[in-house]
Design goal:
17 strands; 13% strand
Length: 719
């Protein structure tokens, strides 16, 4: 046992010394440092995500209303919605019926009738829109114990009169602490698997790609060392000890560095741009034990990648390592095919499993597509070498043979471009899918601003409607909107009613009991876009029943009066459920906000991909300049450097770009057909392919330049 420990210690010291003396050691050191930090960052982000979801559910349960239908109900409770800018606001209307009516977490006492409690974030973002007086008199703030996240926008509004008994939206509540009632931001919260899947697909995969690339920097020297250990009778354990010793220091320091932002988020709530979400430090702090374990696991993963990418034949009959220097492993091609198969078969699975299987297949396909490219370029390299030999072209001969003999170089160089194009395409497709209705709402807002406002009341008598009309801004008209659905074979329609004087503002003529739209009114055209079949009806006075078929419309004479309309609506004795501009619920919908999270994950992943590409290209420049330098003596010409670099670097990367562009186009179209939403931006795809083509040319030119400069200083040595 003591001998084993002594041997392991010796091998680790050999690895530590090798890390300081291997060609390109500084590049690999920083590459492993960045890769370990990237992997740990993603793993710790996953821990923070799980902890945040657990904390949100705990705080949501503490304030969840307990609905009862017994006698002696102490509190009536109703949900509503609003928006500040494009950000949604959760409203809770309450009517205490007893002096000791229960209060939820975050609320010490109910305010007086006509008063309101606001969350700190709502006060911060809504002060410019008059949020302190919109729902009533400001009476205090909701503490963080009653917020699922510090960035939540929520208001508790105590109505000024009794709640109508025939309105079923008022819930009788006996207390708080229900784990089945979703309120505030929890109403549309997705499962924790959704953000984790997006995080690892858009950020985790690039981090692992960076790890693979960094592990193989300077692999030639490392492979020869593995062969020597094999020839001396060393086992995989001995080789593992040396490889771990060489990579342990930068990997450990990178992992510790990733703990710094986690530590910052655990002591101070952090706002995540561009989402606006505030990460609660209490959740992150409580997950420190899990984070410590996760950091160790991420370090083990990085070291496992280092060990796994430097292997030799296990049969002991050969001292040559099983690296990409010989061939592309068949299992990598099989995994790429398995990823494509998962993508193709996802359409035949149940709806809930389709997206998960599709995303999993996508990750596997992008991870191993570069190996398929390497196989194609390896075969191309043999043909190019034969052509160069027949025509006496030294650059083509050498470049073709290098490409055939070292397909792993192509894999590492193409990996960053393949994953980068895939991430950019997926970001564009997901953003278009999540923003179809949001784009329509934005177009409506651009054409008519907020001059058409929908008011969804709980109940409005004719007298209360008249009071609301008198509180509207000057020049505004009040209309009723009623949805009719007679069922097949007749199509549904929407009736807009109002006085003839108000209808004339919309260029609708009244004659007798009928109306005739004359056309030319922009507000009416936008209503048709959203409501479909639209009819008008002269109604001198109207009331609104507390159901989902009726609501009110306010048409203002000028934009920018939405805040005044909300002030008039929400300060009514029995406030409405929702007040928003036409299509406004899509401007701040949860689906449109998801695009911000995709941008956050995608941009982070692209940064990791750029790091992988930079490390891979720099490592290849180091290798090619040393290998090509002696050719100047044999050929006497500098053109050979450009020729070899073009056939060995530029040509394979251009092939990778073309293959990746074709696969990305197919994959994006297939995804849209699967979810039946979104669109492909061929401009974005073309820009990505063009950028990668330019990078391919730049890598070849820079590689040739590095070799030419090294040739000027090269002298024969006894190595």
């Amino acid at each position: 046992m003591r001998d084993r420990i002594r041997t392991a210690s010796t091998l680790l010291r050999i690895g530590l010394a090798a890390g300081r003396a291997t060609p390109g050691d500084r590049l690999r050191w920083w590459g492993l440092f960045g890769a370990a930090a990237a992997v740990a960052f993603v793993v710790l982000a996953s821990v923070a995500t799980v902890a945040t979801f657990d904390g949100r559910e705990t705080r949501a349960d503490a304030r969840g209303p307990v609905v009862t239908f017994g006698k002696g109900v102490p509190l009536l409770y109703r949900m509503g919605a609003d928006a500040v800018g494009s950000r949604p606001v959760s409203l809770v209307f309450v009517r205490p019926l007893t002096a000791d009516a229960p209060v939820p977490a975050g609320v010490t006492r109910w305010p007086e009738p006509g008063e309101v409690l606001l969350s700190p974030e709502l006060i911060r973002t809504g002060t410019g829109e008059g949020i302190l007086t919109r729902y009533g008199r400001f009476a205090g703030t909701v503490t963080t114990d009653g917020l699922v996240t510090p960035s939540e926008r929520i208001a508790y509004v105590r109505v000024a009169d009794e709640a109508p008994r025939n309105d079923r939206r008022w819930l009788p509540v006996s207390g708080f602490g229900s784990n089945g009632a979703a309120t505030g931001e929890m109403v549309d919260q997705p499962a924790v698997s959704s953000p984790l899947l997006a995080l690892w697909a858009l950020t985790g995969l690039p981090a692992l790609a960076l790890t693979v690339v960094a592990a193989r920097v300077g692999s030639g020297t490392r492979d020869r060392r593995s062969s020597l250990l094999q020839a001396l009778g060393g086992t995989w354990r001995h080789r593992m000890g040396v490889n771990i010793g060489e990579a342990a220091v930068p990997a450990a320091l990178g992992t510790v560095t990733a703990l710094v932002p986690y530590a910052g988020a655990s002591v101070h709530s952090t706002r995540l741009a561009p989402t606006g979400y505030i990460l609660d430090d209490r959740d992150v702090w409580g997950a420190w034990p899990m984070a410590a374990v996760a950091a160790v696991v991420s370090l083990v993963v990085v070291l496992a990648v280092v060990v796994g990418t430097h292997r030799v034949h296990r049969d002991g009959t050969s001292t040559r390592p099983t690296s990409f220097g010989d061939r592309v492993p068949a299992w990598r091609l099989g995994l790429c095919g398995a990823g494509v198969a998962l993508v193709l078969t996802s359409q035949y699975l149940p709806r809930k499993a389709q997206l998960f299987v599709f995303t999993s297949g996508t990750v596997v396909m992008w991870a191993f597509l570069s190996s398929v490219v390497a196989l194609l370029t390896r075969r191309l390299g043999s043909s190019v070498a034969d052509s160069g030999r027949r025509k006496g072209h030294p650059g083509r001969l050498i470049g073709g043979r290098w490409t055939h003999a070292h397909p792993g170089v192509v894999v590492r160089l193409a990996l960053a471009m393949v994953i980068g194009i895939g991430i950019v395409a997926q970001m564009q497709v997901w953003t278009s899918r999540l923003g179809v209705h949001s784009q329509a709402a934005a177009a409506t807002h651009q054409r008519i601003k907020d001059t058409v406002i929908e008011v969804t009341p709980s109940s409005m008598t004719a007298a209360r409607t008249g009071r609301f009309r008198s509180s509207l801004p000057a020049g505004a008209v009040l209309l009723s909107r009623t949805f009719h659905d007679p069922g097949p074979p007749r199509d549904p329609w929407v009736t807009v009613g109002g006085t003839c004087r108000d209808l004339r503002v919309l260029r609708v003529r009244c004659h007798g009991g009928a109306t005739t739209p004359t056309g030319g009114n922009a507000q009416v055209e936008e209503m048709r876009r959203w409501y479909g079949n639209l009819r008008f009806e002269p109604v001198p006075r109207f009331s609104v029943k507390p159901d989902s078929t009726q609501s009110l419309l306010v048409v203002t004479s000028a934009p920018g009066e939405l805040a005044e309309v909300k002030q008039a609506a929400f300060t009514l004795p029995n406030p409405p459920v929702q007040v928003e501009a036409l299509g406004g619920n899509w401007l701040g919908s949860s689906r449109s906000r998801l695009s911000n999270w995709i941008q956050l994950f995608g941009i982070t992943g692209i940064l990791f991909v750029l790091g992988a590409g930079a490390v891979s290209a720099a490592a290849e420049f180091v290798r090619i300049r040393h290998a090509l330098a002696p050719l100047s003596v044999l050929t006497g010409r500098r053109r050979v450097f450009r020729s070899v670099a073009a056939w060995h670097l530029t040509a394979p990367l251009l092939i990778a770009t073309v293959v990746t562009g074709a696969v990305t186009a197919w994959h994006s179209v297939f995804f849209i057909a699967l979810v039946q939403e979104g669109s492909v931006s061929w401009t974005v795809l073309a820009a990505g392919v063009s950028a990668c083509a330019a990078v391919s040319l730049a890598v070849g030119l820079l590689g040739a330049r590095a070799a030419a400069r090294e040739a000027e200083r090269w002298r024969p040595t006894a190595d």
